[in-house]
Amino acid sequence: MSFLRALLGRSKPAQPDLDALFGLPSAAITLQATAGLRPTGTGSVAFRPAEGQAFSELQQSVTDLLNADGGPRIEATADEYGYTWLVMEAPDEPADPASGGISELVTDIHAVNSSLETHGYGPSLLCSLVTFADEGGRRVALVYLYKRGTFYPFAPLVGQRRDNALELQVEAAVGDDLAVERDKARWFPVYGAPGL
Predict the structure, then answer these.
(1) Which of 36, 64, 108, 188 gets the most CB atoms within 10 Å of its CB?
(2) Rounded to whole angstroms, how far apart are CA atoms 121 and 147?
(3) What are the pLDDT digits (tens) for 144-161?
(4) CA atoms within 13 A on the CB side of 46
């Protein structure tokens, strides 16, 4: 079958690797050392909600699970394109203040993605993101594209513009820590993403 795909010029799509999310704490250390960017303690998962009671119950059980035992504050919000964003905010006092609680946040983001994937809603997942900021107020998100299994930086500016220089700086910094999306045409802007 791979010979036929090669002959026809088709390639097998990349598979999601949710464990790649666990590279984010290492990338956070790199970003802090190279660019002065620290995790804000905010992350989110975007997905297209499915119709029906089963999906609503799953979304509620995931939210209840994360809200239990002093977990992150979690809020569901919808965007103008019909996607639901589960926005998670790490507890105010992370175990390691320098990390901004990113390890716990990444674990929670992984749990949301895994729960949706396990219950057959993987194709509904769009992306996950973790937000970083520096002392000058610049913000950038590391966005995980579920369907590609890769990351890319997104640094919004006022007026639906992007800070391309910062995005390229972040790409160069985290290239050893994360699988960065090589096709820059897939670095989709997520303007107005909750938590960013």
Answers:
(1) 108
(2) 12
(3) 999 999 999 999 999 899
(4) 23
Per-residue pLDDT tens over the stretch 27-45: 999 999 999 999 999 999 9
Q: How far apart are CA 145 and CA 127, in angstroms?
A: 5
Count of positions (residues) in the chain: 196
> Can you give 72-123 as a three-state secondary structure string?
CEEEEEECCCCCEEEEEECCCCCCCHHHCCHHHHHHHHHHHHHHHHHCCCHH
CB 64 within 8 A of CB 108: no
Q: Residue type at 4?
A: L
Please state the pTM of the whole predicted model: 0.83
Amino acid at 150: T
